[in-house]
């Protein structure tokens, strides 16, 4: 192959690669762009104007309607989502870290057995657990409370798995040993020495669990009847089901969808590097 | 995973080492204190529900004789399972999900693989933009994604339908034949970037020296991609496939949302929807049996796929 054809070939493949990636980028961004445009329109313009072009800019009014609807129930849903996801992921990360650290650092009988049980748990789809959990919780009266969604959400076998890998990679045994020799107890060693070394990894574990809880729909749907306990996903789903009867709800569903995804997308983009580490270790080990 | 703590290679460990291990390690109560905060909820909210579902699925509800008989539960053996397998709606939902999975999973993973490979070559500019735009949908909950797409499918609102009409095509995304693929599109939109990033992270961790020899030998980018890169990241591709199989079998939110705007999705469209519909009818034992069957199918398929590919790759 002569140099010239090679150059021409590489220019062709460069262009083809760029074109393909651009088409895909449009595909990924189109629904979000549509939502952004639709959230700024008055309800009447949704059907009568072209979906990808702005018409009247009514975003502020739509936001007012959204948060004012049914005594501000949307704000309540947003707060609930934050409680379930932030608090749940924080508690979940802490208990995953303790367990994963112990599995990586301590030698004891049955350790590998316990770890394999946890690995099996990674493969158990959480939707399969929702219905039996509902039956158990209704027997104990937890159904239709915050705890019904919160308690199952803190358990993340994948988090323990990551915590164990990260501990092996980031916490050198010598440091743990020397902290012990200095007379520090195991918990002190964990919180004062290992915790700092593990912080970036803990952010990764937190993010995975946060998204898992934030996106969860089946569990709250099974557990909750009281509207005031709904997370955003369930609330918007209910509203979306009523748009056939109350067509004015449509604009609030659209604006609500936008409000619910924008903060998470921003956090995502800002914390990108933590995803990369998590996804790489999840895939390679 | 290798056991680093006990990985003493060579002959017998020195007696001094052993003593240190036994004497200097943490007490059993300390280890339990580390493990319990996770294991207690894990047992209560993971293992107990699984055991409970299995137990429920073995029960039947019977009535005492007579006109005013009361109902009671009794051990029914595999009665519930026999009913699941005789249920036409169950097989129909399995059939839909199988068709969905056989098409959607390979398409999604192929696109993800191509994107990951392209992002790993010097062919592209704007790499960060492409990576972020593809990953962004992962931040969107399935329900919200389905709501967004349902507007793009809706004949009244959709700019896509408008554009297609402009060039003479009458698209009906919610029709009886199309609606399954409209749901598949939502899943593809949600998960392609996530899978791409798993594959891309694996590609990034391959040492560059591996390609250098091949480049000097005059191998093209394509040859390097298919002959060297893809085989090396095979474990990641297997992992994404297994996750996708699990996800497909659990499908609920996306079709449930599309059901709100399309009469072509029944309440028993997917196995999970069927389980929920049966549970809503207070037939918990039958719902438990369906859940157990779905879980078993999930396990068999994902382990089966892992074994199959591991064998073929000679691992």
TrEMBL record, chain A:
Main location: membrane
Membrane topology field: Multi-pass membrane protein
Xref: Gene3D superfamilies: MetI-like
UniProt domain ABC transmembrane type-1: residue ranges: 78-271
Transmembrane segments: 12-36, 82-106, 113-137, 149-172, 193-214, 253-271
UniProt cross-references to CDD domains, sorted A to Z: TM_PBP2
Key words, A-Z: Cell membrane, Membrane, Transmembrane, Transmembrane helix, Transport
Record's subcellular location: Cell membrane
Stored SUPFAM superfamilies: MetI-like (SSF161098)
Pfam annotation, one family: BPD_transp_1
InterPro entries in alphabetical order: MetI-like, MetI-like_sf
Family: Belongs to the binding-protein-dependent transport system permease family.
Listed name of the protein: Sugar ABC transporter permease
Biological source species: Microbispora corallina
Automatic annotation (TrEMBL), chain B:
Organism: Microbispora corallina
Keyword terms of this UniProt record: Cell membrane, Membrane, Transmembrane, Transmembrane helix, Transport
Membrane topology: Multi-pass membrane protein
Pfam families in UniProt: BPD_transp_1
Principal cellular location given in the protein's record: membrane
SUPFAM superfamilies noted in UniProt: MetI-like
Membrane spanning stretches: 28-55, 97-119, 128-153, 173-191, 232-253, 287-306
Domain of life: Bacteria
Family membership noted in the UniProt record: Belongs to the binding-protein-dependent transport system permease family.
Subcellular location: Cell membrane
Residues annotated as domain ABC transmembrane type-1: 94-305
Protein name as it appears in the record: Sugar ABC transporter permease
């Amino acid at each position: 192959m002569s140099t010239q054809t090679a150059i021409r070939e590489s220019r062709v493949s460069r262009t083809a690669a760029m074109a393909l990636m651009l088409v895909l980028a449009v595909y990924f961004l189109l629904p979000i762009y549509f939502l952004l445009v639709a959230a700024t329109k008055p309800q009447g313009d949704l059907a009568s104007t072209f979906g990808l072009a702005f018409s009247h800019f009514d975003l502020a009014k739509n936001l007012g309607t959204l948060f004012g609807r049914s005594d501000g129930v949307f704000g309540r849903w947003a707060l609930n989502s934050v409680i379930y996801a932030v608090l749940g992921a924080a508690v979940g990360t802490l208990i995953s870290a303790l367990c994963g650290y112990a599995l990586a650092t301590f030698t004891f009988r049955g350790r590998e057995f316990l770890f394999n049980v946890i690995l099996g748990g990674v493969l158990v789809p959480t939707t399969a657990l929702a219905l039996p959990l509902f039956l158990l919780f209704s027997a104990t009266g937890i159904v239709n409370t915050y705890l019904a969604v919160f308690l199952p959400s803190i358990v993340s076998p994948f988090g323990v798995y990551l915590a164990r890998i990260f501990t092996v990679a980031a916490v050198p045994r010598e440091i743990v040993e020397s902290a012990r020799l200095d007379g520090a107890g195991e918990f002190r060693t964990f919180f004062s020495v290992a915790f700092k070394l593990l912080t970036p990894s803990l952010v990764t574990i937190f993010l995975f669990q946060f998204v898992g809880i934030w996106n969860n729909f089946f569990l709250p749907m099974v557990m909750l009847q009281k509207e005031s306990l709904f997370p955003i996903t369930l609330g918007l789903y209910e509203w979306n089901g009523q748009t056939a009867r109350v067509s004015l709800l449509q604009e609030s569903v659209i604006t609500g969808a936008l409000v619910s995804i924008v903060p998470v997308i921003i956090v995502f983009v800002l914390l990108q590097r933590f995803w990369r580490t998590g996804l790489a270790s999840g895939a390679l080990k | 995973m290798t056991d680093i703590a006990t990985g003493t290679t060579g002959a017998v460990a020195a007696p001094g080492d052993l003593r240190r291990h036994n004497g200097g390690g943490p007490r059993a109560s300390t280890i339990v204190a580390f493990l319990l905060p996770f294991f207690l909820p894990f047992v209560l909210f993971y293992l107990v529900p699984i055991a409970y579902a299995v137990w429920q699925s073995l029960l039947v509800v019977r009535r005492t004789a007579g006109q005013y008989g009361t109902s009671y539960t009794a051990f029914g053996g595999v009665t519930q399972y026999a009913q699941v397998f005789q249920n036409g709606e169950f097989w129909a939902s399995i059939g839909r999900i199988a068709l969905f999975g056989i098409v959607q999973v390979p398409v999604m993973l192929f696109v993800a693989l191509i994107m990951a490979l392209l992002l790993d070559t010097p062919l592209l500019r704007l790499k960060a933009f492409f990576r972020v735009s593809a990953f962004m949908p992962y931040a969107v909950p399935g329900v919200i994604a389905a709501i967004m797409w349902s507007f793009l499918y809706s004949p009244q609102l959709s700019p896509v339908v408008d554009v297609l009409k402009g060039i003479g095509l009458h698209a009906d995304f919610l029709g009886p034949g199309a609606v399954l693929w409209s749901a598949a599109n939502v899943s593809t939109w949600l998960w392609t970037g996530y899978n791409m990033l798993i594959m891309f992270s694996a590609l990034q961790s391959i040492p560059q020296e591996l390609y250098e020899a091949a480049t000097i030998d005059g191998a093209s980018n394509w040859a390097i991609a298919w002959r060297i890169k893809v085989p090396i990241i095979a474990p990641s591709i297997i992992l994404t496939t297994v996750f996708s199989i699990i996800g497909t079998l659990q499908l609920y939110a996306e079709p449930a949302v599309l059901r709100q705007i399309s009469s072509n999705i029944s309440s028993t469209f997917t196995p999970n929807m069927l389980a929920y519909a049966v549970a809503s009818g207070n037939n918990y034992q039958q719902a438990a049996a369906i859940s157990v069957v779905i879980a078993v199918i999930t396990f068999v398929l994902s382990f089966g796929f892992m074994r199959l590919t591991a064998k073929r790759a000679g691992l």
